Amino acid sequence: MTKVNPYAAGARGLCPHCGEGYLFDGFLKVAPRCEACGFELGKHETGDGAATFVILIAGAICAFGALFSMFAWNWPVWVSLVVWLPAVVAISLGLMRPAKGLMVAAQIAQKASEAGRDHV
């Protein structure tokens, strides 16, 4: 069996353990277990970590684009809104699954677990 790169598999939405089964059960819900290898995926939850990175990336791209288009081409505000609001939604939705897959893959690759009451 070949060694699977967990980060590449997670970014593609596949199981970071085997690289064959699906990581998600829906758009962003992590599947309880991999249907190919049986690895328990449900205990690896990232919370809002991926959303934070996606908001920062999409916001930087679209804020720079909006400012550049307003100053370089002298767009009116309504044209900027028509162009950049759908762009920020599309970029955010496009990056969310790969970002969450990478976060789950990082937890699995680093063998991370949640700290319980006894660990703090």
TrEMBL record:
It is found in: Cell membrane. The chain crosses the membrane at residues 50-71, 77-96. Keywords: Membrane, Metal-binding, Transmembrane, Transmembrane helix, Zinc, Zinc-finger. GO terms for cellular component: plasma membrane. It is a multi-pass membrane protein. Pfam families: DUF983. The keyword Lyase does not apply. GO terms for molecular function: ATP binding; zinc ion binding. This is Zinc-finger protein. It comes from Caulobacter vibrioides (strain NA1000 / CB15N) (Caulobacter crescentus).
